[in-house]
Amino acid sequence: MDFASLAAQLNTGVIAPELIVIGTLLLVLVGDLIVGRTASTRWTPYIAIAGLLVSVGALYFQWDATDTVSFLGSFNGDALSIVFRGIIALSAAVTILMSVRYIEQSGTALAEFIVILLTATVGGMFLSGADELVMIFVSLETLSISSYLLTGYTKRDPRSNEAALKYLLIGASSSAIFLYGLSLLYGLSGGQTQLGQIADTIAATGLDQSIGLVIALVFVIAGIAFKIAAVPFHQWTPDVYEGSPTPVVAFLSVGSKAAGFALAVRLLVTAFPLLNDQWRFVLTALAILSMILGNVVALAQTSMKRMLAYSSIGQAGFVMIGLVIGTDAGYSAMLFYLLVYLFMNLGAFTCVILFSLRTGTDQISEYAGLYQKDPLLTLALSVCLLSLGGIPPLAGFFGKIYLFWAGWQAGAYGLVLLGLVTSVISIYYYIRVVKMMVVKEPHEMSDVVKNYPAPNWNLVGMRPLQVGLIVSLIATSLAGILSNPLFNLVNGAVEKTPILQAAIAARKSVATDLKLQKAPRLTVSSLK
Amino acid sequence: MNNQIPWLTIITLFPLVASFLIPVIPDKQGKTLRWYALSVGLIDFALIAYALWQNYDLQDSGFQLVERYAWIPQIGLNWSLAVDGISMPLIVLAGLVTTLSIMAGWQVTHKPRLFYFLMLAMYSAQIGVFCAQDILLFFFMWELELVPVYMLISIWGGPRRLYAATKFILYTAIGSIFILVAALAMAFYGGNVTFDMAELGLKNYPLGFELLMYAALIIAYGVKLPIFPLHTWLPDAHGEASAPVSMILAGVLLKMGGYAIIRMNVEMLPDAHYYFAPVLAILGVVNIVYGALVSFAQTNLKRRMAYSSISHMGFVLLGIASYTELGMSGAVLQMLSHGLIAAALFFLAGVTYDRTHTLAMEKMGGLAKSMPTVFALFTIGSMASLALPGMSGFVGELAVFLGFATSDSYTSTFKVVVVLLSAIGLILTPIYLLSMLREVFYGKQTEELSQQILLDAKPREVFIAACLLIPVIGVGLYPKLVTQYYDVKTVEVATRARTAASAIAHQPVQVFTQASAAPKLTAGPELLGILK
Fold first, then answer.
1. What DSSP letter does each residue of A19-57 carry, written as one string?
2. Average per-residue pLDDT in chain A?
3. How far apart are CA B317 and CA A410, in angstroms?
4. Which residues are CB-neighbours of B428 under 8 A, at least 6 positions away?
5. Cβ separation of B72 and A483 shorter than 8 Å?
6. SS3 of B66, please?
7. Would an 8 Å CB–CB cutoff place A397 in contact with chain B?
8. What CA–CA distance (Å, rounded) separates B320 from B530?
9. Which among A83, A487, B219, B507 counts the fewest CB atoms within 10 Å?
10. Phi and psi, residue B81, nearest 5°
11. How far apart are CA B77 and CA B70, in angstroms?
């Protein structure tokens, strides 16, 4: 069997975007070895970004592909996975933009950082389409282990070390729990590893009432909730976010989280259709807890990174509304929110990095009076934070409206009301930062802002940072107003994804069955 | 959608688009910016005047200048603008007051770029609120105004500005939750999902559901108007904001509440209005009397005016609750008249503050001698506010009274009590306004004040006050000047509301069974189940 026919048999074309990223990764790695550290910093980040963008381009060409299953069913490059892979690749690209200067200033090697980040990206991208237990676990671990390495990347900083250790210990145990859940699934299904077949076999053997399946579900959800930092599996987040290098935090809060959501959708929808109500119930609880705890605790934070950490917990809660309701609009709203969240959250982190590079601090109180010294940074951070808070006409407003719209459509009134109340709470702490920057008078300026260096964009790595800042600023400002293409994209993704369509159809028939039995919406509403 | 020039879109978006140029305009000695902002304001005002003059048909009670473009069809959000008799005068008011307040902010030297940017953004948001015919778009515009007001209060306000601004944003944001919830609930009710206000009004809601929606909306708009227990943000915000911002707050933003109550509560939910109208009337009376009494107790000039606003907005509620053409017309006239008068008074308070550097009335006194023009203007404003015959306030309040007294929807005892109590409020108004004039302008100057240089009003300031006060007198002498613009519409609103009310009144038994059963059927179990 020659290589070409093997490739055709495995349908290798589907993973072309990942292959491009892997190629870029190898190029950076080898190039760095050949040219040497100082010479390579000049071009490695751009090669990496170019590779990621080409990969996103390759994803675009796969949009209309019909034969999406590859590697004998291990990987499914359907439209849903394309959107998720795009989000992850884009978040990695923006992260690289913001990390050049940061890594430069911390005195560590840039190329290695990029290599590890690209590895994490590959892991996340594979995870988004993984359709088989082994594949899921391998890609999850690729993502996780690279993330541990990234959190500890500034090795001279004790807090970074602490963060990495904490993340590693908690992450390893959660992986173990997740793996145990997978092994139960494997056993219950009589040795199946493909998600679809697992569900079929379990249904066929009549094990759908088995307690083992419920335990498997709980363990799997624990593993996923760790990745998306849902309460109560969030304890690692604030410490890890505070200690890690800021670009890594940005990637963890967007790219890694998106991968977690991709895993959640695929695994829960495909492997647990029998426990539909149960997993929705558990996720509803997680969403409620995340929204409340994330937003309320964020109120009390004094460090910008910690505040963003808690805010990202709250934001994950909002996204979970879309997942829980499980309608067409729900999944679309989830994807839409993740897309706009990508830009607004990365924009906010870019600003935080820029500020800390110039002043060396992350304290919210130190931002006082920044408007006088750096209007661009103030504008960008204000726009991104207000967008996270859901203030019109920014992208976040439309994201939230769509989520709440979908939630109300599906009858999840309680979740929507809670989401609304907690977003008002979130406005309070986001606007606190804006107030700090804009409202403070010159004499109330913090000391670091008084000594704020004049913006100098000509230093090594500042240009990419500036580009990242402006790209996310523009995207956050305009993605809401001109959101039609995005809406079409996410709606198309949901429509073209067979697993979601099957799940939605199944839920609809269940709902009509219940209606026929004259118990209108009883189960549905009590779950939400 | 028609092929005409999209006037409403132009007048709504022009200030916002123009505001994006502000960061790049070279500002030499701070003069270019203010001229730029002012000319944007004037051009937009001229556009408003021209567009309405050319295209607005006074005899038509329906929506005019209708524009409708699909914005995000996936969720049914349309860029849908139109004006009718209620919104048209308010748009003109918003244009006038905002333009004048940009002129009033002539001497803003502190962060002028941000100031004018926010003012122009507000301009767009206000007009957008009055034009929007899609409830989601309305919500968008309503929220759009939130952050600019917050910034305007918290940067250019008085000593307690941060507290006031935070209170403002929290109150309004929590209130607007109810708008969104009501919008979603009504939009998804029944088979067709629509956010179009007219179509929402045509849906047949069960009474319990309608009452629930009405309550939600009245909370949201009650924060804005404000209605008695939800008013506490207002004295702080109005008292702490700088004069140009107070002008907009009192002159236009409060009217957004009144406008929305007429537009949504009365027009879209007429059946629930039947049950809530007495409540509105009582709350209106409470507003009138309570606002007047508390106003009298204030020692801060702007806080006194802020409470007086609360008192005056009570008449709007009373007019809305009256179920008569006259009452409804009076409510709209009272909004317009109060918009002008409050803007003038807050502006003059700002003028006085510029000279005296204090708002505490006990520290002022004897200002009439050194500032005779300001005194004269202030007196005219106060007289207008206390409803002196010949001023617009008189006409508005009289129309509300007459409308309420002739209403046949209430028992005569109820009417007597309501009219009597609000008449007491009417007597209290001169007491606190005249005593304000006495404390500020009569008597002897205090030691501190005599050290200040008390210049009389400059031509610019006289011009602004005149622009606001001349219409007040004009309307007072010849009310038809304004009423002709909206009469057709208010008559229609009142008639429709009355028809709906009489329809309910004639079948009370059926209604009450519905009322007790409906909430449980529609929202009860689900909401309760969720909240568990």
1. HHHHHHHHHHHHHHHHH-HHHHTTTHHHHHHHHHHHHHH
2. 89
3. 36
4. B289, B292, B293, B295, B296, B311
5. yes
6. strand
7. yes
8. 35
9. B507
10. -120, 150
11. 7
- Bridge partner residues of A132 (DSSP): A194
Cβ count near A63 (within 10 Å): 14
**Cα separation, B369 vs B268, whole angstroms:** 54
3-state helix vs strand vs coil in chain B, percent to 5: 80, 5, 20
Q: What does the pLDDT average to over A253-263?
A: 93
In chain A, % helix, strand, coil (3-state, to 5) comes to: 80, 0, 20
- The answer to whether residues A211 and A284 touch, using CB atoms and an 8 Å cutoff, is no
Work out the minimum CA distance from A102 to partner chain B, whole angstroms.
Answer: 29
Predicted local confidence at residue B522, as pLDDT: 42
Can you tell me the distance from the alpha carbon of B187 to that of B182, in angstroms, rounded to the nearest whole number? 8
Q: Are B374 and B331 in contact (CB under 8 A)?
A: no
The predicted structure's pLDDT at residue B287: 92
The confidence band for B516, taking pLDDT boundaries of 50, 70 and 90, is very low
For chain A, what is the radius of gyration of the CA atoms?
A: 23
- Roughly how many angstroms between the first and final C-alpha of chain B, as a whole number? 46
Q: Tell me what the mean pLDDT of segment A435-463 comes to.
A: 84
Separation of alpha carbons A400 and A418, rounded Å: 12
3-state DSSP assignment of residue A419:
helix
Residue type, B166: T
Tell me whether A482 touches chain B (CB under 8 Å).
no
Question: Residue B401 is encoded by which pair of tokens?
Answer: 């009274």
Q: Provide φ and ψ at A210, rounded to 5°.
A: -65, 140
Residue type, B276: F
pLDDT at A516: 57
Residues in chain B: 532
Tokens 């506490």 -> residue: B232
Do residues B409 and B498 lie in contact, with contact meaning Cβ atoms separated by under 8 Å? Answer: yes
State the smallest CA–CA distance between residue B412 and chain A in angstroms. 42
**Rounded to whole angstroms, what are the CA distances from A474 to A91, A480, A481?**
16, 11, 11
**What confidence tier does B517 reach under pLDDT thresholds 50, 70, 90?**
very low
Instruction: Report ipTM for this prediction.
Output: 0.91
Under an 8 A CB cutoff, do A409 and B155 touch? no
Q: Copy the structure tokens of residue A134.
A: 């082994």
The domains of chain A are located at 277-496
Mean pLDDT in residue range A320-349: 92
Taking the Cβ of residue A61 and every Cβ of chain B, the question of whether any pair is shorter than 8 Å is answered with no
**H or E segment and range at residue B67:** strand B64-72
Using CA atoms, how far apart are residues B142 and A344, in angstroms rounded to an integer? Answer: 22
CA separation (Å) from B266 to A93, B186, B187, B228, B257?
A: 53, 15, 17, 19, 13
